Amino acid sequence: MRIVCCREIPEGPQLLQQWNALALQVEQPQIFYTSGWALAAQSAYRGELKPLILLGYESNELLGVAALATDLAEENVTFLAATTADYCEFLCAPGFRSEFMAAVFRELREFDPACIKLANLPETGATARALSANSRAQDFRAFQRPAYACAQVELGCGSARQHLKTQLETKKKLRQYLRGMERVGPVTVEHLCDPDDIRAALPGFIEAHIARFEMSRRTSSLTSLARRSFVEELTNRFAGKNVITLSVMKVADQPAAWNYGFRFQGSWFWYQPTFDSRLEQYSPGYCLLSKIIIEACSDPEIDVVDLGLGAEGYKARFGNSVRHTVHATLTRSLPRHVAEIARYRTAGFVRRSPRAEAIIRAAIGGVKDARSALFSPAFSRPPVRPAKTI
User: What pTM did the predictor assign?
Assistant: First the structure.
């Protein structure tokens, strides 16, 4: 198999069509695997990474795509979509998986990165299953560890869908929250697909997302100019395809909750939600998710509502199935490989042992205090010499 290495995605229509055809051939197609997603990430994160796109060809037929990237120093390799995609994969035509992955790792060996970090690989996906054998042949040492348990709501069919819909609609908690908001004004939900409508609603969504995170003393990803650019670029890339869906719940015509998500190949994705913190007592985010699942039950083209990455408690309460992901680290350096395994096992031990965690946190705090004292103005100022007496 011939590998073509590109440091930027060529936007020729033939390549993009072949790329998307491969994306639909994986076990569970995702919007994250499409050329549109990769192009949006390439455009938005140009100042933070360098694309490394490996294309596998037989004659002129595209048989494989590995959409990777390096850091600016070109020392480490990751997926191009690592910071934006809930699932990542190498795309490959059926029957060519081993050949393509072997060719990719031969190319990466020539590139000689210090480390390859492949995040969010579906645990049961073809890439995760074939990774170790195909990387070992090129002297890469691979270590896979569990990453996320992604909750999903499988809708089932026929009576199962109707039962799930009725169960949600009659939930006492949902009716209580909706009644509370209805005392303020009528509650409505709309799903925006037109790019102009989405662009008009994005500023309010972004402002609410940032404010919500600030209230809990965290930093929203949307404070990053690159992330905001990515969301806008994604909206433009999928214009006219009814894929990007910004769901908005309004109370008295004022937005109360949002979900920037996608409807793609039978999946409705709960990707980036937020709500107006002033209405927190009515759990508008919970209400919006309930409404999305209820609507999905009536849509024969939707099979699953995917709640994506993140271990928030409400996801476990809604979900009736789980999709696991793994994180793979590959290196040709034995010390790096051993250190990666040791770091993971130490972290696991610390999580299981509250006493060990307390000791390590105290030690880290002591080091931080010592560093603060060392670099404080009082410490770093030269001593004041006493004045000479005459």
Answer: 0.86
Rounded distance between C-alpha atoms, residue 144 and residue 128, angstroms? 8
For residues 364 and 369, what is the distance between their CA atoms, to the nearest angstrom?
9
DSSP-assigned states of every residue in 362-387: HHHHHHHHHHHHHTSHHHHSPPPPPP
pLDDT in tens, 222-273: 999 999 999 999 999 999 899 999 999 999 999 999 999 999 999 999 999 9
Place of tokens 């390859």: 116
Structural domain of residue 215, as residue ranges? 156-302
CB–CB of 237/40 below 8 Å?
yes
User: How far is 361 from 170, CA to CA, in rounded Å?
Assistant: 46
Let me know whether 105 and 47 are in one domain: yes
Quick one: which H or E segment has residue 41?
helix 35-44
111 with 168, same domain?
Answer: no
Sign of CA pseudo-dihedral 350, 331, 100, 49 = positive
